[in-house]
Amino acid sequence: MSRVVVITGGSKGIGRATALKFLEERPDLVLVYYDQTEEEINGTLSMIRERGHEAEAYKRDVSSYREVESLFSEILKAHGRIDVLVNNAGITRDRLLVRMSEEDWDRLLEVNLKSVFNCSYFAVKAMMKERSGVIVNVSSVVGQIGNVGQCNYAASKAGIMGFTKSLAREVAPRGIRVNAVAPGFIDTEMTQALPEKVKEMFISSIPMGRMGRPEEVAEVIYWLCGEGSSYLTGQVIHVNGGLYM
User: Are 239 and 181 in contact (CB under 8 A)?
Assistant: First the structure.
């Protein structure tokens, strides 16, 4: 029986790479996105079709409790269960704290952290009925070490780490595992927008001397969802080329 796999932020970057990695097992794949245009999600769906598979795509604001409630109701109506949830949706609103607006703070925490609560809440309810399931939350090395101009982002990603550990304790007796991946400096659309000097500064601090690839993070996410990691829960796996050890 195919697993039902839900990936938020599934239209590009790490979400796209994770979706493509899951195709190895031919799951019932559900991608959630909230891009301004359909270009990214159409590109991802095209890549999936080229590999002989199909995926469902839902445009939803995962920071909205009501939209997520409706989303999971539709998924459960169509598939009856949820086996894997990858909470990957995220944005940046970089500013020094003294220049950060309340809206910069609130919106980022809503998208990056509240979405993890929203999606996990409804996924766990479904998983508890099956007494099985896996959740992987995408955090960041910034949540561990901090970064100038990213007080909001660091707070959201550190929050994901604490949320992961707490939820893992709550649901382990029900056969559900919850872990997190904390990527470092990964070559995605988000980092490609940075000035070259900033990229060079980051890379100079990475022992392996390069950015990571989305596929390298996807490999770890996929492993955390499989039998090879069946005794892991409540863990934060760092994928950062040695930036943080």
Answer: yes
